[in-house]
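note to self: dont lose this again. the chain is below, predicted strucutre after it. 83 aa total, dont forget to put it in the shared folder this time
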Amino acid sequence: MGEGDLREFQAILAKDDTDMNEGDEEFMWSKRENLRSFPEALPKVLLSAPEKNYTGMTTILTVAVMYFAYTHPGNKTLVGDER
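---
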């Protein structure tokens, strides 16, 4: 992420969840894979999912598992490396 993106990310992260606008949501969702190293971003990334209904749950759960796998690298059970 570039310096400008990092500033925008920090500004969005400082906002209350209810104050996020459509542009904030689009930014957070488009950067979701780059933000895995920021676990505090997960709630806002999930709120930014374009489909917040049953059909979008697979995508939302995939993002949540990616964050978990990144922040808990020793736990292989949730990332599909079952023994």
